[in-house]
Amino acid sequence: MAYYFGSKRSRWTPYLLLLPGIFFYVLIALGPSIATSVYSFTNATGLKGAQIDWIGLDNYKEFLFMGQAAKDNFAALGRTLIFCFFVTTIQFGLGLLVAVIINQNLKGRNIFRTLYFMPVILGAVIQGLIWSLFLFPLGGPMARILELFGAQSEFLGGQPAEAFAWVIVIQIWANMGTTMIIFLSGLQTIGAEMYEAARIDGASSWQVFANVTWPLLTPSVNTNLTLNIIGSLQAWQLFLVLLGYRNGTQVLGYLIYAVGFGQTSGSVTSSFRQGYAAAASIILFLLVLVIGLGVNYILKRREERIMG
Amino acid sequence: MFKKMYSMLALLMVLSMILSACASTPAPSTGSDTPEDLTLKVLVHQNPPMVAFMEEFNKKFEEKYPYITVDMSVVNANDLSTVTQTRLTANDVDVVDMFGFANAAQPYMSQVDAPNWQQLIDAGLLMDLSDQPFVKNYDEAAIQDAGTYNGKVYEINLGRVSYSGIYYNKDLFTANNVKVPTTWSELVTACETFKSIDIPCMTAGGKDGWPIFVGAYGLIGSIYPDQEALVEGLWNGTIKWNDAKSLEMWEKMQVYARDMMEEGASGIGGDAAPGRFASGAVAMFPGGTWYGPAIEEAQPSFEWGYIPFPGSDNADDNKYLFGKYDQGWAVAANTPNKDAAMLYLAEFSDPENYQAFVDAVGFIPTQPTAQLNTAIGKEVAPYLENFRVGYEQYWIAPKGAGQFANPWASYFKPFGTDDDPKVLADKVQADLQSGLDAVK
Amino acid sequence: MSTMTKSVRNKKPVNWGRIGSYLILIIFAIIYLGPLLVLVNTSLKTMPSFMKDATGLARELHFQNFVEAWTKANFPKYLFNSLIYTVSATTIYIITAVFVSFPIARNYVKFSGPLLTLFVIALFLPPALIPQFQLILNLGLYNNPIGYIMLFIVNPIGIVILVNYIKSVPKELDEAAALDGCGYFRFVWSIVIPLIKPAIATVVVLHAIGIWNEIIAPTIYLTSEKYYPITRGLIVFQGVYGSNWPNLAAAVLMLTLPMLILFLFLQRYIISGLTSGSVKG
After folding, report:
1. Which CATH topology does A65-307 take?
2. What is the ipTM of this complex?
3. Which residue among A32, A182, A288 places its CB closest to the CB of C131?
4. A110-124 pLDDT, tens per residue?
5. pTM for this entry
6. Could A272 and B416 be called an inter-chain contact, meaning their C-beta atoms sit closer than 8 Å?
């Protein structure tokens, strides 16, 4: 790649300016994560003065192969993928739709945009609280709406599949605002004259979208797909606040949180099991990595095809 | 030019090391006779009445010992064990509040991880309190069951709670001429009577799962009054969750979950249940003694009583209250403020202060001289002699056990997915067995 | 020619596209507003009335909750800390992130590809609570605002957003600026940054909200009360056996306000209308 800003000494300016960011990244994010992967081969408790033994792959074997618990873990893995698929596709689609509409010169668009972004500002704990209330089965707002149609539901307390579906809905409700603003910022890169030109050619709204907006939006599409996939694969907070540790609803991210914080079952026993929790999170990491990099590869090829 | 990058990196590394070296120099402690000003760091979990009491107590303590400043920090109950871990590691705490000091790993349990209090002691992070005079203020059982490990005392426990009881609505019972049940069949009849006149029989925070489990505790308790033996039996295979005795328990649990609980109970959060009961619409509310204050707060004039859950048809089997030891105090082994920490616990353990504490939080006291003054305390007083520690306080699941390896009524519809007691019993035992086989 | 086409289109009697757009926006607005109003409703209830009927309409309009929340959660004291942490960490982060993202997007440094991959991988990294804690402890930055701020100057999401955005800034601009004698730093600082304002605004909002709402990290890293951020103050409304939801809801509404203002302020950069077409030069 050509570099225009001088040679010799000044050729190193970008490196120098890049350095702090890389340094902090290695120090604060990468380093501790590597330590986590080392932990995963030990029985570390994370306590000062406690003995640490090297136990090889035992933690991994326990998570993947030991008894019924391992089968339960695979069931959670399956649910994680289902959750990821629905959340990513729906959130992506709705976020795009809303962003494109809001990007028009409509009255009141500021209000709509702020409203859709509100849940992001509130954070997961509060999102959980307000939906628990909204879906309260005895006379809550949603129950009353259903009543009008002569229906009723236990919502989050219903059968696992139903409760799980509600978490998908709430996750999308909570995070669509992020998808929307990333698309909105991406839409700013498309100049008015591009639309103008298309309209002069007599293109319909759909044609404008398909031939101008969509291809030129490629960078935001990539950003959003990547973030949605990762966000939904790692999700756990909403499961914690909405459902708790409930059989038939757990996803991997929540499983790991539960192990790390010792809240795995009705037994009050909680042990410091940093080694095991580390192994579980490395397994989730590998899963997310494979899916994430796979999707990234496809997106990159597409981007090269479109953007040249 | 890469050299420049590396030297820069090295410089930053050195800088951060200098930074750390400077900051972690410990202040030297002096051993003079006149007490120097010091700060005692106390960690507690968030429980509003308890925190309110502690703030009052700290104020008085600081007045009595002007050279001590108490720095109490409050964390969410969920984060307590993590923060205990980090603060002990950082040597940044003197007195800690601890939960669940009960279920030591037993010799017959293979490959289990010790519970966290045991790990803390094994790592040498908690102080031996055996010789402290204030330990004697507490009843022996409490010190023994929830404070002693390897013959040494590491925690003083501050109270018990019971969870195998049912709150009942006195007005609804009198108005409809229903007898307060003492046996299982009376309970079934009572529920049928209420339902026949469109009064929901029971409510509970079914959305959270565990309130359904503790509500039906009497069903486990009436079959296995000795819960420690139950745990051993499950581990060595002499008791199975699908044997004839247990099957009867599952059948009753199904009646409880399906017929006794009101419609919609599976969507009510644990927070909302006391309010639902206090609204007066429901006849009964199975739950722990800790709900007492919440019910009072929601409806001060509401008349309620509390009885042990009648799980058996023999009234004598139903006189037990099952529960657990709640929080306790422990001291960091490496505290530089040992004397102050001991003064603090001694002051707290003073019978008068302790009484005020129990009155504030509504625990069943662990000091033999303390009185039960709260409304819920008066209700449980007649059953106190029969207080038993619940099974899950001893239980440590074998690694590899499935997620259904517990005696939970919440597996039944509408809370769970099951509707056949036999099928469920087999599944529960299989999930447990899978773990027992895996660790053999 | 163009004016003619336009006027023909404008003469359409009913603009169905516009009506459809509003319809969709309004349906979404209802879906968003409903649950949010529950929060407002809760904040206006008394505790007993909440316990009795959590979702019933708050007829009592108990504004006292806001006063109680303000004092009990120690807003005046902790709000300032929250502001300091959020502003300083976000500022440091954004500056370092721009200088990481730009050369990577432009391939101006060797191994740009692998570097970007490294940051994308960072998105997936497993949580490393205990090692991170030990790092901060060993740096002597435990229970220290600097250590706390340090935790938040890394965020790979922002890098990914920025890199993808910068790619849409034409490279010809770099060449032209360099020909005019503009140095690298000055180019990035005074030309690139203004051009990528929408992306920066997005990243600022997302990053700042993350810090503002953080609750676990201050619980673990800041043990002196004088350093508490405001989220740490909200804990007084929670309890093991039940929480004071009306107070909490009131506190949350107040807590949300600064971030809402930030968003309202920055959204004009996120969506600056169709006037910023100059990016495409």
Report:
1. MetI-like fold (1.10.3720)
2. 0.88
3. A32
4. 899 999 999 999 988
5. 0.89
6. no
